[in-house]
Specification:
Length: 266
């Protein structure tokens, strides 16, 4: 009976030791590394980032010149429209100034000159002062007509022809279509990568593997978007804020998840 009891105790101890060994750290950084690479993660510095970033970065690189061309077309169109608006403003200013000149001229013409008799010296002085004041005001207004006309002429000289305006409108339309198409293609790709980061961050095997690597390599390792990916998505956000796509494709919210460190659930 004593021998049987002793054997049972030894068997229980062996079973417990096996169980504890199963839960003990594997101390196998190669196996932990394989878990992360199996999830499409690659290490750069102390950060493990998804290989899936690469096609997104390539697409954003293609997007940049498309955006630049669209922005340039918008700038040209804005310049033409601003010139047209300024011409209208200058014409209104010219009309109003000329109307004021005409009003002052009428005042001068309607002034009644006092008699030249010796006892009317006060009236003559008052008349001369009033006339001088009106003439000075009129002269100042007439002088301002010159710069108004000069600025208007300069704008007219640089105004494109109607054909050039039509070509610019067509160019703007084409560039806008290219821009919207590129933005529509790249945004879902960004969203997919961010979603994958969420999934990886919640994977228990990945968590355990990262902890093992931290322990064995004594490094502050983390999982998250690369600096290059964060910068590229930030530039994309800035472009879309400057020129909205007109739809609900903006990812301003999800893009905030591209901060350094492990992606978090929204």
């Amino acid at each position: 009976m004593t021998r049987l009891r002793h054997r049972l105790i030894l068997a229980a101890g062996a079973t417990l030791a096996t169980a504890l060994a199963a839960f003990a750290p594997a101390d196998d950084p190669a196996a932990a590394e394989a878990v992360l690479t199996g999830q499409g993660l690659a290490r750069a510095g102390n950060t493990y980032s998804l290989e899936a970033e690469k096609p997104v970065l390539a697409k954003i690189a293609e997007f940049k010149p498309v955006f630049a061309k669209f922005a340039a077309a918008i700038e040209q169109q804005n310049a033409v429209e601003q010139d047209a608006a300024r011409l209208i403003q200058l014409e209104q200013q010219r009309i109003q100034t000329q109307a004021n000149v005409d009003t002052l001229s009428a005042q001068v013409n309607n002034m009644v000159r006092p008699s030249n008799s010796g006892n009317n010296r006060l009236g003559q002085n008052q008349y001369a002062n009033e006339q001088g004041t009106i003439l000075a005001q009129r002269r100042e207004l007439m002088m301002s007509l010159g710069p108004i006309g000069q600025e208007a002429e300069m704008i007219r000289l640089r105004q494109p022809s109607q054909r050039a305006k039509d070509d610019l409108a067509a160019e703007l339309k084409a560039r806008r279509e290219d821009y919207l198409k590129a933005a529509k293609e790249v945004r879902p790709m960004v969203a997919d990568v961010l979603k994958k980061y969420d999934e990886v961050a919640k994977d228990d095997k990945v968590k355990a593997a990262l902890s093992e690597l931290k322990r064995t390599k004594l490094a502050k390792l983390k999982i998250g978007p690369s600096d290059q990916f964060v910068a590229a998505v930030r530039q994309l956000d800035q472009a879309e804020r400057m020129i909205p796509t007109g739809g609900k494709t903006s990812m301003a919210g999800p893009s905030r998840k591209t901060g350094k460190g492990t992606a978090k659930k929204k």
